[in-house]
Specification:
Elements: E1 7-14, E2 17-24, H1 30-36, H2 39-49, E3 59-65, E4 70-76, H3 96-100
Antiparallel strand pairs: 1-2, 2-4, 3-4
């Protein structure tokens, strides 16, 4: 099962940092998402799709927001300088939320 079947996502940016929220459609899935989406797993998934960004430059912090049934991932170093310095096609990192939602979840 893919993450997009249980949650939706939003992305923001500030400089070289991307902010990705993952919000469960149903409150009963929140704990399962917490178990499935470690910072290491998120980095491994995104890094496989973005090999041009050296992994040593990434720093992922996960914040849990149980009242909102949401997780917030702050990923420093992923935007290669941010919108004003990067020549990347997606300098704002908006596609990262779609990439995140493609994570394959393990069976419950």
């Amino acid at each position: 099962m893919k993450l997009h079947q249980l949650a939706h996502s939003r992305t923001g940016d500030k400089g070289d940092t991307s902010n990705i929220s993952v919000i469960a459609y149903d409150a009963q899935d929140y704990d399962y998402l917490c178990q499935q989406l470690s910072p290491e797993r998120v980095q491994a998934h995104l890094q496989g799709l973005m090999p041009e960004v050296p992994p040593a430059e990434w720093r992922i912090t996960r914040y849990e927001l149980p009242q909102l049934q949401a997780l917030n991932f702050v990923i420093s170093g992923v935007l290669r300088g941010g919108v004003t310095r990067s020549t990347a096609l997606d300098a704002h990192g908006k596609s990262l939320s779609s990439l995140m939602l493609d994570i394959e979840l393990t069976e419950r």
